[in-house]
Write a structure and sequence with these properties.
By secondary structure, this protein is α+β, with helices and mostly antiparallel strands. The longest helix has 15 residues. The protein folds into 3 domains: 53 residues, Roll (Structural Genomics Hypothetical 15.5 Kd Protein In mrcA-pckA Intergenic Region, Chain A); 94 residues, Alpha-Beta Plaits, CATH 3.30.70; 83 residues, Alpha-Beta Plaits. The strands form 4 sheets. Strands 7, 8, 9, 10, 13, 14, 15, 16 and 17 form a 9-stranded mixed β-sheet that branches. Strands 3-2-5-6 form a 4-stranded antiparallel β-sheet. The radius of gyration is 20 Å and the shape is elongated. It is built from 6 helices and 17 strands.
Amino acid sequence: MPADRLQKILARSGYGSRRACETLIIDGRIHVNGKIATIGDRANINKDSITIDHKMINCPEKLIYIMLNKPRGIESTLKPQNNRNGVRELINLPGRLYPVGRLDADSEGLILLTNDGKLTEKLTHARYGHEKEYMVLVDGYPDTSQIYTWRRGIILDDTYQQIKTARAKVYINKKGASGTWLQIIMHEGRKRQIRRTGQALGLRVKRILRTRVSTLKLGGLKPGEWRKLTDKEVQRLYDYKIRKTSK
């Protein structure tokens, strides 16, 4: 087996996306044959000693792809806070599995978990253009101006700067006594972006249900249920990436 870039080996071994693995290298946590690794280093997993925090890395695992209907109240992080449960606890499989992207505890619906760092990066990096689709219940009845502004993008305060959200597809799906259901399709996923956007437009978001990630649809999965992706479903995710980046 030829030498590979370290971040590729680490990602394939389940330590996160390539960008996350680059951070491990930059932070000085990776050693190769006893020496601190640097960005650009290569290694042969069959010949070289590769450690993280002075412990041998795990050999690349069989790649696993899971789709889960995350219930409300469950955190999508691996280290839940406030005595909440995390998504990993719902998957009774051994080995490393990482959530792909975020879905806050108060939201529900489709979330992917995998140990494939390459696919994780492709699905979460904005340049690949993977869509995420949501059904969002808001109080009251949005007017044309509010819908138009949401579609065009608004200014939100991030930690250290103001950012403008990317354009989104926003449609009124259904009106009822409990409020209005919106169908929202977007390419980015900033922290609590839908709730913050609704608040900025004077709309209280009552419920968020993610129904699609790229080519994967939630389908008939009930809250808390999960299943493995088929080979065809995984291939479609990669094929979608190829179509988006071939332009």
